[in-house]
Amino acid sequence: MAKKSKTRNRAVRIEVRESAVHGRGVYATQFIPEGTRIIEYTGQRVSWEAAPDDENDPHTFNFGLENGEVINPEIGGNDARWINHCCDPNCQAFEEDNRIFIYAMHDIEAGEELFYDYAMEIDEPITEGSKRKFACHCGASNCRGTMLAL
Ligand SMILES: C[S@@+](CC[C@H](N)C(=O)[O-])C[C@H]1O[C@@H](n2cnc3c(N)ncnc32)[C@H](O)[C@@H]1O
Ligand SMILES: [Zn+2]
Q: What is the CATH number of the domain that holds 99?
């Protein structure tokens, strides 16, 4: 019979549950050190035109890539789709070889909700109305009031 391995499971543990900020969110279930690659934002690559949501809909799961495509997590998506936005985030999304990975920007304690700054872009000029439409409820002391990139 094979011996049990004593190697620690180093998979980053996260869970999805209700968030005080919006709908469902993603939480650390264990300490996550700064710099840890936590999860990939997976999904089907589609053009903006083929993306399921209206680009001006403030509730969106689409993640834009530098090549102009969009990741649609409705097909092949994982828990990363539930990560909420915060203006003072503890995570950062990086694009590497046409893939998006979420990294811990600093140490994250068990129980903390994970956030990155969506820095959303829209096709129209940013107005007070569009800021309100994409209003942010993160509650950070430096909240800019909107999920849009200003
Ligand atoms: C990828 S989903 C995140 C999961 C979302 N909480 C849910 O349950 O559907 C992104 C959407 O969540 C909402 N959201 C995320 N962070 C927010 C925030 N700080 N303030 C307001 N709405 C937020 C927005 O509607 C946004 O388009
Ligand atoms: Zn905010």
A: 2.170.270.10
pLDDT tens digits for 24-34?
999 999 999 99
Q: Is 106 inside a domain boundary?
A: yes
Q: Which atom belonging to ligand 1 lies closest to the Cα atom of 115? A: 16
Whether residue 123 lies inside any domain: the answer is: no
Place of tokens 């083929």: 50
In terms of DSSP bridges, do strands 37-41 and 99-104 run parallel, antiparallel, or are they unpaired?
Answer: antiparallel
Q: Which ligand is nearest to the CA of 134?
A: 1
Confidence of residue 57 (pLDDT cuts 50, 70, 90): confident
What span, in angstroms and rounded, lies between the C-alpha atoms of 94 and 119? 13
From ligand 1's centre to the CA of 36, what distance in Å? 23
**pTM strictly above 0.90:** yes
In a domain, 23, yes or no: yes
